[in-house]
Amino acid sequence: MQILEIILQVLLGLTSLLLILFILMHKGRGGGLSDMFGGGMTQAVSSSGSAERVLNYLTIVVALVWFLSIVGLGLITKFQVI
């Protein structure tokens, strides 16, 4: 059980960092933080619709892995026998 717990903890850390990165890469819809950090540049860089769809897909997949690793760690913690 110890090895599985370590793997899930590492997976949780990696997916947390990836989620932060992917969410910050999304195109802004209004005058939010994305416009504060070079608003004109983000429109030129992410003007492709297919790139935005791939980013949406990756964000959803990473979020699901993140959620499942949290549930797995919670189950391990709850049913762990000393």
> What count of structural domains?
1
Order of helices and strands: HHHH
* Measured distance between first and last alpha carbons: 11 Å
The fraction of residues assigned to DSSP E strands is under 5%
Q: Approximately how much helix is present in the residues?
A: over 70%
Biggest sheet features: none
Mean pLDDT value: 82
Q: Structural class per helix/strand content?
A: mainly alpha
Quaternary status:
single chain
Query: What's the count of strands?
Result: 0
Spans with pLDDT under 50 lasting ≥5 residues? none
Round the Cα radius of gyration to an integer and report it.
17 Å
The outline comes out as elongated
Helices, by number, come to: 4
Organism: Microbacterium faecale
Main location: membrane
Keywords: Cell membrane, Membrane, Protein transport, Translocation, Transmembrane, Transmembrane helix, Transport
Pfam family, one: SecG
SSE blueprint:
Blueprint (H helix, E strand, L loop, with lengths): L1 H24 L7 H4 L2 H7 L3 H30 L4
Helix pairs in contact: 1-4
Detailed description of the structure:
The chain has 4 helices and no strands. It is mostly helical. The chain has one domain (2-78). The radius of gyration is 17 Å and the shape is elongated. The chain starts with a helix and ends with a helix.
